Amino acid sequence: MIVEDFGNKSYRDILNKTKKPLKYYKKIVDTLINIQKIKINSKTHKVIKNNYSKKILTKESNLFFQWYVPTCISKKKIPSFTKKAKKILSKIFTQIKGPNTFFVHRDFHVSNLMDYKKKVGIIDSQDALLGNHAYDIMSLIDDVRIKTTTKLKNKIFNYYVSRAGKKLAIDSKTFQDDFDILSVQRSLKIIGIFYRLYLRDGKKKYLNLIPYTWSLLHLRLKNPIFHEFSKILNDYLPANKRK
Q1: What integer pLDDT is reported at residue 89 of this predicted model?
Q2: Residue 2 within a domain
Q3: Which of 5, 64, 213, 225 has the CB geometry, 3.0–4.6 Å to 188, for a possible disulfide?
Q4: Range of the domain at 181
Q5: Between the CA of residue 153 and those of 132, 158, 208, 216, 219, what are the distances in Å?
Q6: CATH value at residue 131
Q7: 3-state secondary structure (DSSP) of residue 227
Q8: Is 142 exposed, middle or buried (0-12, 13-18, 19+ CB in 10 A)?
Q9: Is 185 exposed, middle or buried (0-12, 13-18, 19+ CB in 10 A)?
């Protein structure tokens, strides 16, 4: 592991100021693909010990049910909703097709990406796992801390697929489904974490990020793979009650 001081100029700072964000995102995507091209496994790279397994995905998404759900669904309905929703999510997580053979930073968003000597420096990689190649590009595109248009999201996504397709043997349909599943899982986790920070730690500022996180969730729930989950979400938690 190489440790170096990348300074304090993050890509979040750059993207908040520029009127042409795509060129910076392309540079970040190229860096990500170069990382993902490196063949690694837990035996040869002993620092990375775990796979981003269904068990971990489930544990993370459960934060939504633990911290957020009790704030907006009646106590009487919580057990029924939680049981049904978790069962559906478990089934959805089994539909992830991509192998857990790629380096996954886990927090690959612009606040952790630094502009250093005209290259992309990456910080806070201590929680890295072996996982699906859709995860980090999803974290970049569906970053809850910086708002981007759907048009820009699609351009970044298509650029990644066009550049990584042959190098990483990507099937576009399978990749899109994996991307959407992981995005929904991450958004549920983040909503749970932000409410935990508010309720347990008194950090109210994180509530300001909840509406955009919900908008990301709504965007990815359009995938037909979420039909059943969307229905139960609407039954128990209509859009006007999501806060």
Answers
A1: 99
A2: no
A3: 64
A4: 11-241
A5: 19, 9, 21, 11, 11
A6: 3.90.1200.10
A7: helix
A8: buried
A9: buried
CB 114 within 8 A of CB 120: yes
- Per-residue pLDDT, 226: 98
Contacts of 65 (CB under 8 A, 6+ apart): 82, 85, 86, 192
Q: Which helix (H) or strand (E) holds 228?
A: helix 227-236
Q: Give yes or no for residue 106 having a pLDDT over 70.
A: yes
- Averaged over 196-219, what is the pLDDT? 98
Q: Is the pLDDT of residue 170 over 90?
A: no
Contact 108, 140 (CB under 8 A): yes
Domain annotation covers residue 50: yes
For range 2-29, the mean pLDDT: 83
DSSP string, 107-145: --SGGGEEEETTEEEE---TT-EEE-THHHHHHHHT-TT
- Tell which residue, 18, 38, 25, has the closest CA to residue 159: 25
| Overall number of domains in the chain | 1
d(CA 76, CA 56): 28
Q: In the chain, how many H helices and how many E strands?
A: 9, 4
Say how far apart CA 34 and CA 32 lie, in whole Å. Answer: 5
pLDDT one-digit tens code per residue, 118-136: 789 888 778 888 999 999 9
Residues in a beta bridge with 104 = 129
Q: How confident is the model at residue 8, as a pLDDT?
A: 66
Residue 58: exposure state from Cβ atoms within 10 A (0-12, 13-18, ≥19):
middle
